[in-house]
Amino acid sequence: MALRVMIVDDALFMRNMLKDIFGRAGYDVVAEAEDGEMALELYQETKPDLVTMDIVMPKKSGIEALQDIMAENPEACVVMVSALGQDSLVLDAVESGAKDFIVKPFNEEKGPRNRQTDYSSQLIILRKQLWICPSTGIFS
Questions:
Q1: Tag placement on the chain: N or C end, fewer CB within 10 Å?
Q2: How many CA atoms lie within 13 A of 139 on its CB side?
Q3: pLDDT tens-digit map of 28-59
């Protein structure tokens, strides 16, 4: 059975890019949310194996949504994906239960990506940066 993923980001292009990366790798994107409130609702409906979560979003931040999800399911596997790499945000995310924090753009060179992106190499970078999620064991 394929890993069930929910993507949370207010930027449509980022949701589409992550959806494409996971889809090409054979994972099942079961939900997409554009803000923290929608993320919590969709998490409750779909119970995904993995959530990728932006931090800065309207209505409810990614850290607030993370805290709500972890309060509901302490075993949830949530990975923060954000352009903000500030130490305080990383610490807040990890202390709130995030399994990892990935800084956008997530490629080896840390430079901008063009439309001819090698999606499989981006998934490899994601896999290298993700911690093991105990509930799934997918990224071991």
A1: N
A2: 24
A3: 999 999 999 999 999 999 999 999 999 888 89
